[in-house]
Amino acid sequence: MIAILDYGSGNLRSAERAFARAYSDVIVSSDPAICAEADGLVVPGVGAFAACMDQLIEAGGAEIIDARIAHELPTLGICVGMQVMFSDGREKSAHKGLGIWPGDVSQLDAPILPHIGWNTVSVGEGSQLFTGVEEERFYFVHSYAAKSEVPDAVNSTANYNENFLAAVETPYVVTTQFHPEKSGAAGLKLIENWVTHWVRA
Amino acid sequence: MTLAKRIIPCLDVAGGRVVKGINFLDLKDAGDPVELAAKYGREGADELTFLDISASVEERNTTLDIVRKTAEQVFIPLTVGGGIRTADDVNTLLRAGADKVSINTAAILRPQLINEISDRFGNQVLVLSVDARRAGTSSGYEVTTHGGRTGTEIDALKWIEDAVARGVGEILLNSMDADGTKEGYDLPMLEDVRAICSVPIIASGGAGKLEDFAEALESGADALLAASVFHFGQMSIPDVKGFLVQRGYPVRITRQ
Question: Angle at CA A143, nearest 5°, toward B69 and A167?
Fold first, then answer.
């Protein structure tokens, strides 16, 4: 089963439908036990970092993700669901992230924000997530991002006036700053890759 | 390696059907919204916008159903506008499958609504739709309501600056002078708004030929919204994107 962690408001329906294209058993759940034990967990996230972190902690998200890493179960963080993996979020007010990875999340240095739309990704060497969609564009909508590479990971970057992390692949935690569930056929392929190489692996 | 310029078809819906008129009057039936949304998705639309222009609450409930059905099959961003008055209204639309909402009159009547939505969902969820026309306000552009029929004497540029400070993530700039004329986007207005606006601008109103799209990008638009030229088959999204590629603009090319 793939569980989509429901820890607040936002559009989870699209994510549910998109993942259901690649995997037969997908549910949206706020149940910590289900989310901790699912074959794959998707951590979505829209809005501000601090608000997301508060809701995530309230939903037991920190324990869920720690338990999954300890049990070697795959987790996919999307957008703010990626940003919360870092140690420090500087969106609006300084706020601690989950600290699974070192580094800050900070505002993009660009004249027009948010960064909204379809951008290309410079895919890191050895990526399995981007197999077959290396040249495609993906849909971003954010003003903040992580900018320093995660050690011992496949780091893929994008550029909007400056370089930032577009995706990170580690053995159990994978994240994308863009929205694969909103990135058309390319996004569906990327989700399929995650299912193939992490959930079914 | 640059952000693509977005092409966004707009579907005005009323009573469960897509409609289109000139200057919001004389509405014509333009098809089934879910079918049209799926078709535009296949053709490479970068986002979709539904604008609910229903006259009644009963009609409006059909829109939620359209959003649900569209979100089940079209995996690109979906913006919904029309009839949003509270942050809870936004939550209902997001839960149905919308990614962004656009607000217009309700924000003019109560600007604090912008703060309320933005504080709860982030500014990236909120598009401020501005129906502007030339008038005697300080910048020369006035905000209108009721599809351009009613002036507010609010200066459009001041309103945009205020709204961005309150927390909108994009401006949908709809020229009431150009809307439905197919004589091109309102380029001077676009340039004047770009000069004071730090969030992305979606240009709307007046697209009639391929050249119009390139001119709007040249005048500072980040995204281009059009309705009738697509609905009535005058040109397709691949036509527009192909033309923009020739002109050297970055666009997202999809394989059908």
Answer: 75
